[in-house]
Amino acid sequence: MAALSRRHMLSILGASVAAPAIVRAQSSEPLKIGGMLPLSGPASIEGRQIILGLQFAVEEINAKGGVFGRRIELVMEDDESNSTKGVTAVRRLIEREKVPFIVGTYATGVAAAASKVSAEYKIPMLSGGSTGALATDQNTPGDPWFFRSWPDSNAQGEDTAKAIVEKFKKTKVAIIHDNTNYGVTLAEQVTRVVGTAGGSIVSRDSYNAGEQDFSSMLTKLRTQRPEAVYIGGWAGDGANILRQAAEIGLRAQFVGSGSMLSDDFIRLAGPASEGFAVASLYEASTPNPVGKAFGERFRAKHNQDANTFSSLGFDSTTIALEAMRRAGKPDGAEIQKVLKSGMKDFPIVQGPAGTTASFNAKGSVDFPNFIAVIKDGKRRLDI
Amino acid sequence: MDLFLQYLANGVVIGSTYVLVAVGLTLIFGILGVVNFAHGEFYMIGGYAGIFAITVLGLPVLPAVAVVLATAAVVGIAAEAILHKPMKNRDATSSIISSFGLAVALQNATLIVMGPQPQRLNLDVSKIPVLSSLPTDFGPVFLPQQRTLIPLTMVLLIAILYVVLRYTWTGRSLRAMAQHATVARLCGVRVERVAVVTFMVGAALAGIAGMLMSSIFLVYPIVGNMIALKAFTVVILGGMGNVAGAAAAGLLLGITESLTSGYIANSMRDIVGFVFVILVLLFRPQGLFGKAVDRS
Fold it and tell me: For B136-172, what is each residue's pLDDT tens digit?
């Protein structure tokens, strides 16, 4: 024993520590996948809804025996809706956890910054809620690394504007929007489409996100007698505008941007939210049979209805897991190849019946948005 | 003309909150020389305290006001202990920076306790005796009772403050401190007590404003940021430390914003106040209502 040097001892010790890990990696150690969402900070309400969809997808696949006979383990990172934190989170997921793909994130700006990094590592990202067109427009057409399993903000603006003119038959439209990228982009798209669909814009006003008093703006708006009012902005401001409009007796069809989908919005706006219309990707009463079945399973587990947020989280996760299964190995570049063209037959829970994960050249899926209308404090599709 | 009157009324309502927040701010500056950037958070805490008292505890309005005042008193005592007591003999920048720190700490504490989602106070006006009998239409002007309550409360509180400052021993010692701290101390004014009272009054005025506003607007952890900036605008326009000036400038700013929003563009309303402030600082640094005094 005395002949053993210090160096020998260390190498023996090292090998005995490393060996079990090598053996385990070859057998059935859990297969890690990455998730990234704002779990704290300003968008945490949405983040905490979306993560339910991710977890639900992972639980369901594990109940069926996982992928490649291995259990799936979801590794979550919190980006706090902050680009710097998002980029760090992506690096950590890829370098330390060695995930083959990442589902995330909610804020478009963060998704755009983080997906640039993941593309360098050849790891695909699937959106966890970012609807802004920017995130997929920065993809190289034909070779996307950022995938969104629903239409972008331009399509949402277009569907909403068409609903105002064609579904609600309102032609005199007023537009109110906040001064963020999200609000301005949507307002411009709605303005353009309302014009081409035969309506006219009677006024356009903007406000700073977080502003509280809209009474004078709405008083002025009332004198222009709009038939419909489109609001592009965050949910809190939208709820404030609705309540103050009801107070001063501004009667019109109010239509809002996708951010105003949550039940919190209805709670904040109160009775003023009756009749309010909003573009939606999923409601529990969806006509899509795949979506309806998902809604029933989700309700049985969580005792709450699935919504746009949980359904998109579920879709992004199941699409990526299925693409990995079809690729035959947990390898980012192979998964991206399958996502690009090999998923056109895979049904998803969002959108109308028959919607599949058929990504276009920019990495987005095209289907018409639902227009949900609030009646008796609930969003409904059948009105 | 009808529209003009409605804009004017909207301006008075929003201006009244500026007055309540700014008067406290200008008192704290005028008497103690503390530039308090955490003042917007006093407003925010008042809003949450009001929601807690009415929605969670189920109290009627007047006891709820008492809860808000008690909370504001605690906040005022704590803020004085942090921002004034340990810093009063140091450079003014120390308290400015620590008030920034206090603002951030309070915002994040609220974020953890209350969460990021906005909250609203459901104030049922029909249960409040005098208020429910008020009309909502004043000729061409329409004002819901929750809104009418705000200027009424503002006038009442400012009147009480005026009487206290003018005719009570506490008020006299506050004014003595504002004129000259050392001489006030020599004349027997208990300087430490005056400092605490000043902070408590400031926090109470802002807290009541926050409570009233949460019945027509929303409360969330960073709501104090903008209101603090507006209050600073009002304080500069009215003359630093000038209570009557702050009251007049607060109403003026509210009305200007409302008219800007009505006749120019809503996106311009927040800019107008700050343009005013820059002009005032350039051409009339003592404020619109201040007197220029040479130091002896």
Answer: 888 788 888 888 889 999 999 999 999 999 999 989 9
Q: Which domains, ranges and CATH numbers included, belong to chain A?
A: 31-150+287-367 (3.40.50.2300), 154-280 (3.40.50.2300)
| Subunit contact A219:B262, Cβ cutoff 8 A | yes
Which residues in chain B are contacts of A268 at CB distance < 8 A? 118, 120, 218
Task: Determine the distance in angstroms separating the CA of B217 from the nearest CA of chain A, rounded to an integer.
Answer: 6
> CA distances (Å), B251 to each of A43, B155, B229, B233, B287, in order?
35, 11, 15, 12, 15
B282: confidence class by pLDDT, cuts 50, 70, 90: very high
Q: Are B164 and B171 in contact (CB under 8 A)?
A: yes
Give the pLDDT confidence score for residue B293 in this predicted structure: 60
User: Comparing C-alpha atoms, which of A88, A95, A59 is closest to residue A74?
Assistant: A59
| Terminal Cα distance for chain B, rounded | 50
* C-alpha angle A129-A134-A140 in degrees, rounded to nearest 5: 110
Rounded to an integer, what distance in angstroms lies between the CA atom of residue A127 and that of residue A146?
7
**A223–B3 CB contact, under 8 Å:** yes
User: Which residues have CB under 8 Å from A348's CB, separation 6+?
Assistant: A149, A290, A291, A315, A318, A319, A355, A356, A357, A365
Binning pLDDT at 50, 70 and 90, where does residue B248 land? very high
- Which run of H or E residues covers position A172? strand A172-178
Average pLDDT by consecutive 10-residue portion of chain A (383 residues)? 52 49 59 92 80 96 94 93 93 96 92 94 95 90 95 92 94 92 88 93 90 90 94 89 91 92 86 93 92 95 91 96 95 95 94 94 94 92 75
CA B198 to chain centre: 13
Strands (E), chain B: 137-138, 141-142
Residue boundaries of the structural domains of chain B: 2-123+136-283
| Cα distances (angstroms) measured from residue A93 to each of A56, A78, A332, B98 | 20, 11, 13, 38
Q: What is the rounded CA–CA span in Å between residue A215 and residue A242? A: 11
What are the residues facing B142 on neighbouring strands? B137
> What ipTM was assigned to the predicted interfaces of this complex?
0.82
Q: Nearest to residue A129, comparing CAs of A348, A308, A291? A: A308
Sheet strand arrangement including A125-126: A72-78, A31-37, A102-104, A125-126, A146-147
Interchain contact, A217 vs B261, CB within 8 Å: yes
CA distance A281 to A369: 6
CATH code assigned to B2-123+136-283: 1.10.3470
> A55 vs chain B: nearest CA distance in angstroms?
22
User: Which chain A residue has the Cα nearest residue B268?
Assistant: A207
Which residues in chain A touch residue B213, judged by CB atoms under 8 angstroms apart?
A: 212
Contact at CB, A210 and B142, closer than 8 angstroms: no
Among A282, A301, A302, residue whose Cα is nearest residue A292 = A282
**CA nearest A41 in B: which residue?**
B116
